[in-house]
Amino acid sequence: MIQHRKKRKLIVLADDFTGANDAGVNLVNAELVADVVFQLPYSGKAQALIINSDSRAMDANHANEKIHDLVSKIGKIRQTDWVLKKIDSTLRGNIGSEIEALMQATGRTIAILAPAYPNAGRVTIKGNCYVHGKLITETEFASDPKTPVLHANIAEIIRLQSKISCVNVTHQQLNDLFKHHDKNGNNQHLIIIVDTQTQDELKHVVSVATQAKTLPLLVGSSGLFQAFSESQVVKNHSNLFAMIGSMSEIAQKQINRLTSHPNTHFVHLDIDEMLSHGIQKYQQIISEALNQGQHCIAHTSLEHSARHQVIALCEKWALTRTQLGEKICLLLGELTQQVISYSSPKALYLSGGDVAIAAANALGAEGFNIQGQIADCVPYGRFIHSEWNKLVLTKAGAFGSEDTLFEILTFIERK
Fold first, then answer.
1. pLDDT of residue 5
2. DSSP code per residue over 338-401
3. R_g (Cα) of the chain, nearest Å
4. Domain 2-233 maps to which CATH number in 3.40.50.10840, 3.40.50.11440, 3.30.430.20, 3.40.50.920?
5. Which of 101, 136, 97 lies closest to 115 in space, CA to CA?
6. Alpha helices (H) in 38-93, listed in sequence order
7. Can you tell me the distance from the alpha carbon of 98 to that of 9, in angstroms, rounded to the nearest whole number?
8. What pLDDT shows up at residue 3?
9. What is the pLDDT of the chain when averaged over all its residues?
10. Residue 102: left if φ>0, alpha if ψ -120 to 50, beta else—which one?
C-alpha cells in the first residue's frame, strides 16, 4: 500500500485516446482516482482529470484552438495544480502547437519537455530523439502515413509550430536553470528540452519540477508519467483516521480503551477554538501523525461536562443548539476532507451519524457501497464517486461495547 503526499489537482491533456489511457494507468498505479474524458465540462470526483483532445492528426491551428477550448471548460486551474501534457514518445502530433496553447491557457511560463521512454528504447540525447539507437528520422516513424516525424531535433519540431524559445539541457543542468529562473523572476515563456536516457533521470526531472517555486507544465510520454506517479506517493502504513463527533458515554469509553494501544495518537478537538481560529492547526497535527504511520483518533470531548458546555457555546456564538450542531458538523466534515487531502491512511472511521454524513458530503460522496460489518455494529465499505476511494467504517455514536474501537484497529491492521 502507498500513501499520498498533499494531493494537488491533476489536469492531463493527451492528444489521443490510447495516450490518455497510458497516462491514466500510471496514475491509477499510484492509487489516484483517474478519469479519461472525451467531452467537457466534467462533473466527476476524480483526483486526476485526463482529457483526450483527439488532436494528433489535426492541423496545427485547429489543435491549438482545441486545447484552448478544452482548458476554458475545465474551470479554474490554480498555479498550485499540476498540469501535464501527454505526448507520443516518437514525437508524432502537434507538439509545438499544443504545448504553446497549454502554456497560454494555463498561465505556465515554463514547460519541461522530457519525451524519452527508456523502457521502450526511446531516449533524448543532445536534444535529439533516438529509437533503439537510431535517430528517429532513420526509422519507420519518419514515414508515418498520418503524422510523419520530419526532424530528429526536438527544438526544430517545436519551431515548426511555435515561437516560444527552446533550450536544451541535461538532467543535471535542469536544477541550476530553475534556480536561475526563480532568482531572476523571469516571466518569459520557455520550453526546456531535457536529455534523459534512463528512468532514474526522468525521476530527477520530476523531482526538480516538484521543488520549483512555480510549478511548470510537464510534458512527456509514459516514461515521464511513470516517474511523476511514483513521486506522488511514499510508503504507506496500515493506519486508521478516526473522526469521532459523538458525545455519548459509550463513545468516550471506546476512546479510553485505546489509551494503551501502541502507535496511536489522540487529538482533542476544541470546538470553541475551531470556531474562533479555524481547522488548520488540527489538520496539521492529524496529518503529521498519519504521515508518520500512526493511528489518529480525533474526538470532540472526553469530559462528562461537555454537554453542559454546549449551552455556553450557544450563548457565546449566538446560536441555537441546532445551529451550533450544524456548524460543528460542517467543521468536522471540512477537517476530515482537509486531512485526507494531506495524508492517506488505510481507512477512515466516522462515529456519529451527523458527523458521518457531513464528512461524506465534504468528500463529495454520492452514496455508500456496503461491503460488510465488524464488531456487530460497524458497517464498512466505500464511498461512491468520492475523492476518498479507500475503506470507510461508520458507527452510530451510542452503539457498541468498550472494545469496539479496539476491534476496529485490529481489523485494519490485519486487513
1. 44
2. HHHHH---SEEEEESHHHHHHHHHHTT--EEEEEEEETTTEEEEEEES-S--SEEEEE-TT-S-
3. 25
4. 3.40.50.10840
5. 136
6. 60-74
7. 21
8. 41
9. 90
10. alpha
